[in-house]
Structures are given as C-alpha cells and as structure tokens.
Design goal:
Layout lengths: L6 E2 L29 E2 L8 H35 L5 H33 L4
The protein binds zinc ion (ZN).
The site of zinc ion has 8 residues, from helix 1.
Keywords: Coiled coil
Amino acid sequence: MSGRAVHLYPWDGGTEADQDPPEHVYCGTDGDMADEQLTNDWRYVTCKRCLNIHEKELAARAADDRDQKIKLFDEAQAITITLGHRNISTAIKALLRERDELRHERDNLRLDRDGLLEAGAHLL
Ligand SMILES: [Zn+2]
C-alpha cells in the first residue's frame, strides 16, 4: 500500500477516431503514476485537488440549474401576469377551474343538441 493519492483519470477507452488516453489526470498533476493511482470512478478518488475541482464544477452546475429555474419562472410569471395573476400557482388553479367549467358547459350543450335532434327526428 503506497498511500499515494488516487486521481480521477477520465478515460473510457477512447473513440474510434481518438484512441489516445488523456495525457493528464483530472487535476493536472504531473509525474509517473501507478495504475492503482488512476480511477475512472469518483467514489475511489482521494486526491484533494481532483476532489476540489469536482466540487467546484458541481457547484457551478447547481448555480446554472438555479439560474435556468429562475429564468423559466420569470417566463411563466410574465404569462400569468397578463392573465391577472402574479402568483403562478393561483393562475394555474384559476385556469384549471375555468377548464372544468368550460367542459361542463360543453357537455350541457351536447346534451341540449342531442335532445333537440331527437325531438326533431320525426319531422324528417
Ligand atoms: Zn488529482
């Protein structure tokens, strides 16, 4: 057991066009590395530099996700404000209620129509 840090070595065997393994481990540390110091799996990485970079990337991704969520929220709210609701949930509930009322109205109209057709059938 060498006790040396295990680095992430992100190589999946390459593609047909690019068979070359990467020159560096994830954190860019130089030097000869034994096979057991390289892993493709974050669960086995012990190198602090690799882990720090990974953590920053995850944080950046989380921030991107948050920004995207806020953007989508703003877009949705811009729509609901034109419907008279600042609160998106309230707007959706109002729309669902309206949909149900319209469906009910449509069903009543169908019943009326069917009744009229039946009543007038003998005139044909
Ligand atoms: Zn490393």
